Amino acid sequence: MSFIKSVLPVILFFIIGDVATTLYALGLPGLCESNPMSQFLVSQPIVFILSKCTVLAVLYFLYNGSTAGWFRVYTGIPALAGFLLCINNICWIMNAM
Q1: Backbone CA torsion sign across 18, 20, 24, 26
Q2: Integer Cα distance of 26 and 56 in angstroms
Q3: How far is C-alpha 40 from the chain's CA centre?
Q4: In 1-97, which residue ranges form alpha helices assigned H by DSSP?
Q5: Nearest residue to 62 via CA among 2, 17, 3, 20
Q6: Quick one: which of 17, 60, 22, 55 has its CA closest to 41?
């Protein structure tokens, strides 16, 4: 339970938030994925979600082998990245409306 509690911001922002806002934005007319590396991933939602979930697997191994202080750093990086991705996607969505 404490692992899930520790990675909850990663799950909310990096996985759920980014996937939901990205897929919603790509459904709007005029918006497309501009990152060539991500175009394949977002064209297949299951692959996109699974690629996001690999971060949880990496974090689980880090959870077992690191101190609590470092683990907060390890979870903070993808959580912050996910938050910024959500904000970016929301800005694109608002501009498209």
Answers
A1: positive
A2: 25
A3: 16
A4: 2-6, 8-9, 18-26, 36-43, 45-65, 68-96
A5: 3
A6: 22
Residue in the block written with tokens 């520790």: 6
Instruction: Name residue 16's amino acid.
Output: I
Two tokens, residue 95 = 């501009």
Q: What sign has the CA pseudo-torsion 70, 50, 90, 9? A: negative
Q: Which amino acid is at 11?
A: I
Residue-wise pLDDT for 23-45, tens only, equals: 999 989 988 888 888 888 888 88
CA 33 to chain centre: 15
* C-alpha dist (Å) from residue 63 to 21, 33, 58, 83, 96: 28, 33, 9, 21, 40
pTM: 0.83
